User: Which sequence fits this backbone?
């Protein structure tokens, strides 16, 4: 990982990974390519562990000329590919952007890596970060998703990620490109844009706003603290078998409604209000085609690479709530965005 290209490194998981890698690889230089869409911000890259080894490049992964130039000029030996449109609700309102970024963008990166490395794949690695949503939905009694679970995407978002996964695997089998993949469960932690459940609930509760619960609130997700995810990606990119996929999950599967209650309980302790924060919980119309349950079997990554999550839901959630309470400047930079307010109105007003 002497010269590593991180795509989407100004976003939630990408920015956390940049910090992780700067600490884990003291000899590495990171080139961070991000288009700075609504979910990416330079605010996420302040106070890096060693900023002299980090170069930010604003640009689109679909820009083949730019991507090829970065690969060549900086002798990139490792690509860690996070950049993606990732919110299901946004994919329902506007699927085109998801096809463009997640499919065409991944194709552009694969072609750039193939051209730059020109068949000399020794010491090279292309790691693709994907999602558990490509596997579809589970019933309460179904076994957890494994790496062998057939794909069954249910939203434009998950369909576009499934397509990108297939492209990455095709480049391994067709061209021998040295790829690895991870399919992760729902992440949470610092720097997550508050369109997602956990930061939205934290920030709405602090402001005394309604906490919208989709349907009956009994959807189940396998919650993964972002620092645990970064460690898993690092281990797979360094030591995972070429062409292989590894499932990454947190081993935490509460109902969404119970997760929100846990957030409210922590806030009642840390930021007490006139009434319990749970009084703000409001049931709204469910998301169209909302997957009921996700769960990840992490046996493979545990057995092959020795990875297990360090955070349980209690410790991870407390750390997350405390981070948002302690980083009000970051929160203000996000909540003051007119586009963010317009999105909340568009997605929730008619529910």
Assistant:
């Amino acid at each position: 990982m002497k010269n590593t290209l991180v795509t989407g490194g100004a976003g939630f998981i990408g920015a956390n990974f940049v910090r992780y890698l700067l600490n884990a690889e003291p000899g590495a230089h990171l080139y961070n390519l991000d288009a700075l869409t609504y979910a990416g911000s330079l605010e996420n890259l302040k106070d890096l562990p060693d900023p002299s080894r980090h170069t930010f490049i604003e640009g689109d992964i679909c820009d083949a000329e730019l991507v090829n130039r970065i690969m060549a000029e900086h002798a990139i030996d490792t690509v860690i590919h996070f950049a993606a449109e990732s919110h299901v609700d946004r994919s329902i309102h506007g699927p085109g952007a998801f096809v463009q970024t997640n499919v065409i963008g991944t194709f552009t990166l694969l072609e750039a890596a193939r051209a730059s490395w020109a068949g000399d794949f020794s010491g090279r690695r292309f790691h693709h970060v994907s999602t558990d949503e490509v596997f579809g939905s589970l019933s309460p009694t179904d076994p957890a998703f494994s790496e062998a679970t057939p794909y069954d995407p249910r939203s434009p978002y998950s369909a576009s990620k499934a397509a990108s996964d297939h492209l990455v695997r095709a480049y391994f089998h067709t061209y021998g490109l040295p790829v690895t993949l991870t399919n992760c469960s729902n992440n949470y932690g610092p720097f997550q844009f508050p369109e997602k459940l956990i930061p939205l609930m934290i920030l709405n509760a602090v402001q005394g706003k309604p906490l919208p619960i989709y349907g009956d609130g009994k959807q189940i997700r396998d919650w993964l603290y972002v620092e645990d995810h970064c460690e898993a990606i690092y281990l797979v990119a360094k030591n995972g078998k070429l062409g292989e996929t590894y499932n990454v999950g947190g081993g935490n599967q509460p109902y969404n409604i119970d997760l929100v209650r846990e957030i409210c309980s922590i806030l009642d302790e840390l930021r007490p209000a006139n009434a319990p924060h749970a009084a703000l919980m409001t049931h709204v119309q469910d998301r169209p085609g909302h997957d009921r349950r996700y769960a990840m079997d992490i046996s493979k990554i545990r057995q092959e690479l020795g990875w297990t999550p360090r955070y349980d839901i209690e410790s991870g959630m407390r750390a997350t709530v405390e981070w948002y309470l302690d980083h009000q400047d970051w929160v203000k930079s996000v909540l003051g965005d007119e586009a963010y307010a317009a999105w909340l109105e568009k997605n929730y007003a008619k529910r």
The first strand starts at residue 3 and ends at 7. Residues 69 and 112 are 9 Å apart (CA to CA). The mean pLDDT is 95.
